[in-house]
Amino acid sequence: MKFFGRMEARNNELYIGGVSVERLRQEFGTPLYVIDEGDFKEKAGVFMDNFRSDQFATRVIYASKAFTNLYMAGLLAELGLYMDVVSGGELYTALKGGMAPEKIYYHGNNKLFQELEFALAEKVGTIVVDNEYEYQWLSELAGRERVRLSVLLRVNPGIEAETHKYIQTAKDDSKFGMSIFNQKTQDLIEEMSKDKYVDFRGIHCHIGSQVFDETFFFASARAMIQFAYEMESKLNVDIREINLGGGFGVYYTEKDQPFELADFLKKYIQIIEEKLHALNFELETISIEPGRSLINNSGSTLYTIGHIKETITGRQYIFVDGGMADNPRPALYQAEYEAGIGNKINSEPVQEYTVAGKLCETGDILIENIKLPVASPGDILIIPSTGAYTYSMSSNYNKIGRPAVVFVEEGECRLAVKRESYADLIRNDVVRR
Ligand SMILES: Cc1ncc(COP(=O)(O)O)c(C=O)c1O
After folding, report:
1. Rounded to two decimals, what is the model's pTM?
2. Is any ligand 1 atom within 6 A of the Cβ of residue 209?
3. Upstream peptide bond of 31 is cis (omega within 30 degrees of 0)
4. Which residues are catalytic?
């Protein structure tokens, strides 16, 4: 198992942010999401220090869908990041957690009318319009409230990034945004730029998630700048911002080879500057929206090992006290992970196991065929690199409460989300009378 951030081994036990896995289990129970806060802050610093230019302002917008809660929103606000949200619920969380409304970008291909009303009432900084129907609603709302709304339009630059098809988002027939090759897109840009209640600031794209080939990002940046330039020249609109989305790939297993972030970000800026220079074109702001690449490797999940079962075929199952309810990614898109036994972290991995959850689905397998030290019931299994799209995609399937979330830093533990109790599981249920 690869160590990340502030993980270290002391006397054959794993410590994260100076806290042992045994202490975490004793204080908070398992399953448990653990976030290495020092590591997260360092990552945020890498983004903010390297995605910078003298020629335009830059914004690092954290994609909250990867992982969010009140604590996280407060931390992001403190660190000076922006935040993107895709629902009324994420918006509510961001605001309640202390994120300034003007630093929020609101995305989504089917924002509800009530959600748009809520965003307007809260004076959200930027609405990223997905399509012409949403624009009609926004225009109506902004006119009714007599406010000037700041918007970007989500477009598809036609870059088909190589990744799982469920996380490819900018194909011509994608459900998100509008193709730059579609005349309707140009017509909408023209219409929005003439609307007295809409301040059309620019365009946004997101080519997909878990993308390892940096040339896709460079190609998409060039295509977006070219398109913005052509729109300005042709339609006499003033484009001031381009938001290039997120999607930077991260390490889960040895199969993943992410690019070095600081170098990539510097090169990204350089490519953007070169393209702007070649066109003699200026922009006020360029933004990016990392989610996974900011949070994933700072997060781990701890489980307690229950029974260890050998099948007639010789497969050795390790059963853990969580599963697809706290991490649906393996069942959803065959995501792969590494793992370790936290209380035997330096012991030789000699035995092949399959790690299975406790939920009533055959597909509830967290890891197939992984070599670990000989496991015993009561050991602590750690799956690292589970910061993104685990807690945020978790469910109460089989009426299992969601685990707690704890941030650790320099030997201190800070509870961010309490474990759901049985009472929490039925808090919205109504008894039949
Ligand atoms: C609009 C938008 N921005 C940013 C992201 C974040 O992507 P990632 O977590 O891969 O960086 C997503 C993810 O799907 C997205 O849809």
Report:
1. 0.96
2. yes
3. yes
4. 360
Ligand 1 atom having least distance to the Cα of 289: 4
CA torsion, ordered 160, 163, 166, 168, to nearest 10 deg = -30
Alpha carbon of 167 to ligand 1 centroid (Å): 9
**Cα–Cα distances in angstroms (integers) from residue 21 to residues 252, 344, 381, in the given order:** 20, 11, 9
Is there an atom of ligand 1 within 6 Å of 108 CB?
no
- pLDDT in single tens digits along all 433 residues of the chain: 999 999 999 999 999 999 999 999 999 999 999 999 999 999 999 999 999 999 999 999 999 999 999 999 999 999 999 999 999 999 999 999 999 999 999 999 999 999 999 999 999 999 999 999 999 999 999 999 899 999 999 999 988 766 555 555 555 677 888 999 999 999 999 999 999 999 999 999 999 999 999 999 999 999 999 999 999 999 989 999 999 999 999 999 999 999 999 999 999 999 999 999 999 999 999 999 999 999 999 999 999 999 999 999 999 999 999 999 999 999 998 999 999 999 999 999 999 999 999 999 999 999 999 999 999 999 999 999 999 999 999 999 999 999 999 999 999 999 999 999 999 999 999 999 9
Phi, psi (degrees; rounded to nearest 5) at 96: -65, -30
Q: Residue with the nearest Cα to atom 5 of ligand 1?
A: 246
CA dist 130 and 137 (Å) reads 12
Counting ligand 1 atoms within 8 A of each CB, the residue from 43, 90, 105, 206 with the most, and so the one to mutate, is: 206
Q: 63 CB under 6 A from ligand 1?
A: yes
292 lines ligand 1 (CB under 6 A): yes
Distance CA 425, CA 197 (A): 44
Going from the Cα of 394 to the center of ligand 1, the distance in angstroms, rounded, reads 18
82 residue type, one letter: Y
Residue 65 Cα to ligand 1 midpoint, Å, equals: 8
Structural domains of the chain sorted by starting position, each given as residue range(s) with its CATH number in brackets: 7-36+297-425 (2.40.37.10), 107-290 (3.20.20.10)
